[in-house]
Amino acid sequence: MISVRIILLILLLFLSARSIFAQPQPNIVLIYADDLDADELNLTMNRVDTWATPHGARKVVGKGYKAGVPKVFTPNIDSLAQDGLMFTRFYVNGTVCTSSRYCLLTGRYATRGLELQKDYPVNTHATLEWRPAILREETNLAKELKNLGYRTGIIGKWHNMPDKVLPKRNKKAHAANATYETTKKFEKAIRQYYEAGVGYLSSGFGWDVVDRMEWGNSIVNLDWQCEGALKFIEESKGQPFFLYCALPVPHGQYYFDYNNISSYDQRVTSAGIVEDPIVVLPTAENVLDRTRAKGIPVKNAMATRMDDYVGALLGKLEALGLSDNTIVIFTSDHGSRGKNSVFEGGAKVPMMVKWPERIQAGTENDSLIGNVDIAATLIEVAGGTTPKDMSLDGCSFLPQLMSQAEPKNWRASMLIEAGNSRAIVTRDWKYIANRVPPEISAKMAARPREVFWTGVDHHNYQTEKMYPAYWDADQLYDLNEDLYEQQNLAKYPEYQKQLEKMQKELELVISTLPHTFGEFGTNGD
Q1: Does the pTM exceed 0.85?
Q2: Residue 129 class from Cβ within 10 Å (0-12 exposed, 13-18 middle, 19+ buried)?
Q3: Are 239 and 326 in contact (CB under 8 A)?
């Protein structure tokens, strides 16, 4: 017989679920930083045993590839975890801008992308590169939320544009943090480029508002972008809304030149010149005063400027009385220590979620969650049903969000993809497979240790220097003992059973995807 205690527990969970959906549909604000490491936020800065950060590598391994002091001032971003929930085992399933954003918005692994299949037909090997684009015919989060009655808006970086949509890019016109004079000189071309992107993305992708966009990695004008975000919230206050803020920072690390908060002209935007400087956030002088008072290095001031952007959004929600019914998510597209690889430093980043009166404040969760899961979760939060093609890889983590026990059928492993690398990660282990097609194998043989697993000799972000076994085709790591992936266990006989188990896991996943990968997914052919 079922005990009274179990019946009461089932009833409690049922009533809890009903209470969630008895409320009005929550607003959703999704903030996606660019290349952000855990040691670039104050709250997670010293969690070197949780995230494999550059600072942690120096501290734990004794070597790192990052200048500067990991000390920052980010009170608003910190508050999202302090007032909400921190996910400590959250991964992005693709570790460069394009693939990560594809996973986020479609809920699918990047190699399912239809655009990728045009160059790499089904049942062939696919090199992921900076792909795939998101196509109109694909299901995505904005479309689904719009169908559920949400007003949808996107502000910031978009790196998922198909070829030939935008005019040919003029490098001089799109120089990083261009001067007023340069932007003025090329303004016509800049506006044409910008408007072509807005026009394309505004039709058929589910966005009601496409504003303050950055199509590449050129302009950092957070005031301009934040002004657009605040305007969207103000105009949407009478209905449920979804706002996706894709931040252009830090894109690298704070000490990079384009993160100098005093260097960019607030009249210069990705859409051209605005004659009156846009001042929405505290001035550079104000930011520097606050950071100096905290003993923060000047080179890390962009952390506080980014934090001010988040604070402005939170302040607007509070001023409009929307905070209690808004779910705010903050995370990053990937880390920098292992970007464009499947190592922990690139794939595992913090994720914070604030949802007042729904989420228990100051809690943490260590479920194995990927950015392919965010779309399914938000659709369920909005009261919808996740489409089948968004359920192939992603799962709703709403129970974990509500501080309930991890579902018994929750995944035990997950795929991470980059270039010609694939990884299976579990709570305890990581298996990495590097496989290349014949043409890349020939390049690597002709130029040993110069052409990387990606098939090119650039954009490797010093990963080959950070990970001793980088050049090994098969790698196995015990993540409990070796979070920084310094000792490849694949070559040791005592770990062969674990290696084979992880290889079988990779085979199972690859067999469900459109492309083969080396010997994986070929069904023995």
Answers
A1: yes
A2: buried
A3: no
User: In 3D, which of 484, 170, 497, 525 has the Cα closest to residue 345?
Assistant: 484
**Per-residue tokens: 60:** 């734990």
Question: Which H or E element spans position 477?
Answer: strand 474-478
* Separation of alpha carbons 78 and 384, rounded Å: 30
Q: What angle do CA 473, 430, 513 make, to 5 degrees?
A: 75
Q: Could you list the beta-strand ranges (E) of 203-325.
A: 209-214, 241-250, 268-269, 272-273
Antiparallel, parallel or unpaired: β 363-365 and 85-87 = parallel
The pair of three-digit structure tokens given for residue 248, joined into one six-digit string: 């252009």
Phi, psi angle pair for 137, to nearest 5°: -75, -5
Mode of pairing for the β-strands spanning 414-418 and 421-425: antiparallel
State yes or no: cis peptide before 132, omega within 30 of 0.
Answer: yes
Q: Is 308 left (phi over 0), alpha (psi -120 to 50) or beta?
A: alpha
Q: How far apart are CA 374 and CA 398, in angstroms?
A: 10
Inform me whether the pLDDT recorded for 5 exceeds 80: no
Structure tokens, 164? 């030939």
User: H or E stretch including 7?
Assistant: helix 4-22
Dihedral of CA 186/190/192/193: which sign?
A: positive
pLDDT in tens, 435-479: 999 999 999 999 999 999 999 999 999 999 999 999 999 999 999
CB atoms within 10 A of CB 64: 20
- Rounded Cα gap, residues 218 and 178, in angstroms: 8
Domains and CATH numbers, the chain: 26-401 (3.40.720.10), 414-510 (3.30.1120)
Q: Are 499 and 106 in contact (CB under 8 A)?
A: no
Q: What is the C-alpha to C-alpha distance for residues 23 and 26, in angstroms, rounded to an integer?
A: 8
For residues 415 and 92, give the distance between their C-alpha atoms in angstroms, rounded to a whole number.
9
30-39: pLDDT as tens digits: 999 999 999 9
**Amino acid in position 246:** A
| Whole-number Å distance between alpha carbons of 355 and 37 | 24
11/104 Cα distance (integer angstroms): 33
Phi, psi for residue 314 in degrees, rounded to 5: -65, -40
Cβ-in-10-Å burial (0-12, 13-18, 19+) of 356 comes to middle
| Residue for token pair 């936020």 | 41
Q: Per-residue DSSP letters for 63-109?
A: -----S------HHHHHHHHSSEEESSEE-SB-SHHHHHHHHHHSS-
Structure-block tokens of residue 233: 């919230």
Look-up of token digits 């005592």: 494
Determine the Cα–Cα distance for residues 47 and 50; give it in Å rounded to an integer. 5
